Amino acid sequence: MVAEPAWPVNTLPRLYVDEKLLLEAVIVPDRAQAHYLISVMRFKMGSQLVLFDNMTGEWLGEVIEADRKHLQIKIIHHLNEKEAIPDLWLLTAPIKKGRIDWIYEKACELGVARITPVITQRTIVDRVNLERLQAHIVEAAEQCGRTSLSEVSEACSLKQILADWPEERALFFADETGGESMISAITQRKGPAAILIGPEGGFTDQEREMIHQIQQAVPVSLGPRILRADTAAIAAAALWMATAGDWGKQPRQGND
Question: I need a surface site. Which of 26, 34, 36, 117 has the fewest CB within 10 A?
Fold first, then answer.
């Protein structure tokens, strides 16, 4: 008999596990996860939750051992396959801590496939804590129901990222000097895409010229107002998702 959740799946806590999940596997959460489930969520024997691994989709798990020092969860049912994510990259110049954390969190919620910090001439922040940003990605995925984590890439220079730009991928860059309407540009260019957002001070003339030399580059406008870098990144990603992404799909109902 197939195990059924004690509660509707969409009301159960979700937990990311960094190992491949399979039916009847026993999972031992790390110390921080165990503390959260036992001390905050008050988990006990028989409590259920949804787990996902960024590989095989999401699964129903049930606590089979719980005390102050130990927590074990048994996988009892496969709920959903790993979702297909729209092929959108977000390339954004690093900004202050807190604001960059917010970009990564919201980009994951929106469904962005890959996020890459891009170092430009006017970038103020030159160090990026990828481990902290990855933690924000995981937390966002747990909260929003994603079964596929946004990929977090190493920081690289604008010159490096443009050097081998994929032929099939459109590059929409937010150009403060003006460009096509974002929605119009996306509508005319379907397929894999990337959004490039500069730092607080914008791109230099030299950088703008370098971007224009990429055949796939499309300067776009995000409206009549001057947007902060973090606002521009999320606004552009939302416009792409609404126009060419998966926002037309209905939310998953939990069980297959």
Answer: 26
Query: Given this model, what pLDDT does residue 251 score?
Result: 65
How many Å apart are CA 184 and CA 61, to the nearest integer?
A: 45
Domains 9-80 and 88-244 share a fold: no
Class of domain 88-244: alpha beta
What are the residues whose beta carbons fall under 8 Å from the beta carbon of 26, sequence distance 6 or more? 64, 72, 73, 74, 75
Give the rounded distance of the alpha carbon of 60 from its chain centre: 22
Give the separation between CA 135 and CA 137, rounded to whole angstroms.
5
- Residue 219 forms beta bridges with which residues? 173
Q: What are phi and psi of 158, to 5 degrees?
A: -60, -40
- The domain ranges of the chain are 9-80, 88-244
Judge contact between 81 and 57, C-beta under 8 A.
yes
Report pTM: 0.90
Residues in Cβ contact with 191 at an 8 Å cutoff, skipping those fewer than 6 apart: 87, 168, 169, 170
- Cα 11 to Cα 60: distance, rounded to the nearest angstrom: 12
Q: What is the mean pLDDT of each run of 10 residues along the chain (256 residues)?
A: 56 93 95 88 93 97 87 96 96 92 97 97 89 96 96 95 96 92 93 95 94 96 91 96 87 53
**What pLDDT does 72 receive?**
94
Element (DSSP H or E) covering residue 217: strand 217-221
CATH number listed for the domain at residues 9-80: 2.40.240.20
For residues 33 and 15, the answer to whether their CB atoms sit within 8 Å is yes
